[in-house]
Design goal:
Distance between the termini: 43 Å
Strand content: 5-15%
Shape: elongated
Helix content: 40-55%
Oligomer: single chain
CATH superfamily of the largest domain: NAD(P)-binding Rossmann-like Domain
């Protein structure tokens, strides 16, 4: 596929673990970037070798990037706890046409501006919160851009994150902690639901294999129905629930005080608080 006018000429992907690798595959499979346009910096041998196998330039250290290089975008896909140690090596690209995109939970744009813009230059920074369904092209990413990010850079970031799912923009960075708690951490809540439903099925007398298969297929099938239906989730729930029936009996338990609604509210609040703490 030929590159469009907004397609990047040069990309640097810092970190090629699960999410970084999913993004890389999405870019290449979707024709968003040609392998020759991408350099991956990954200190771990196995993910670096996996990246190299896709035809991109795979490096073990930022120092291997040529001093003359001026990437259109540097994407940081490393753990938040490691970010402070990783960033300084890329400060040499600040002040030019490079936009910096981060998918690290909890790390605010001011954190990147402070470290990357040590020379006082305005630094274009975009903060992103994707989620793990990006691994199968079904993720959703929220993006927030600083004032230094121009329209072309916004388009570039949206295109790159859109290669693995849906994209939305936030006008208020303060909402990112809630986004992290809902969609960033949310897949784990769904996986836990599958676990719990399977455990309840076993407690009801079903064999392990049948319990696991029923739980997984029910959750994923219901999710696909919700995705394809124009009805709100509440309406879909009502369509399954007959007055006085089996579903109604179960929902009385789930919606009681201290039940699923209260638990989910508390869980999201705890995740959001942790996201704020990671910014310190």
């Amino acid at each position: 596929m030929s590159e469009g006018p907004s397609s990047p000429r040069r990309l640097v992907l810092v970190g090629c673990g699960r999410m970084g690798g999913a993004l890389l595959r999405g870019w290449l499979d979707g024709g968003v970037a040609a392998p020759g346009a991408v350099a991956v910096v990954e200190p771990e041998a196995a993910p670096r070798a996996a990246a190299a196998a896709l035809g991109v330039r795979a490096l073990d250290d930022a120092g291997a990037l040529g001093a003359e290089e001026s990437p259109d975008l540097v994407l940081f896909a490393v753990k938040p706890q490691a970010m402070a140690a990783v960033l300084p090596a890329y400060g040499r690209f600040a002040g030019g046409a490079t936009v910096f995109l981060s998918i690290a939970a909890g790390k605010a744009t001011a954190f990147f501006e402070r470290i990357l813009g040590a020379g006082g230059a305005a630094v274009p920074v975009v903060r992103a919160m994707p989620n793990t369904p990006a691994q199968v092209g079904r993720g959703i990413t929220a993006l927030y851009a600083t004032a230094a990010v121009d329209d072309a850079q916004r388009t570039l970031c949206e295109t790159l994150m859109g290669a693995v799912g849906e994209v939305l923009w936030l006008d208020d960075e303060g909402l990112m902690d809630a986004v992290t708690a809902v969609s960033g951490s949310g897949p784990a809540y769904v996986f836990l639901l599958i676990e719990c439903l399977a455990e309840a099925a076993r407690a009801a007398g079903l064999p392990d294999d049948i319990a696991s298969r029923l739980a997984r297929a029910t959750v994923t099938g219901a999710a696909e129905l919700a995705r394809l239906s124009e009805d709100a989730a509440a309406e879909l729930r009502r369509q399954v629930t007959s007055p006085g029936g089996t579903t109604a009996a179960a929902l009385e338990v789930l919606t009681a005080a201290g039940g699923l609604r209260d638990l989910m509210t508390r869980a999201v609040a705890a995740a959001a608080a942790r996201s704020r703490a990671l910014a310190d």
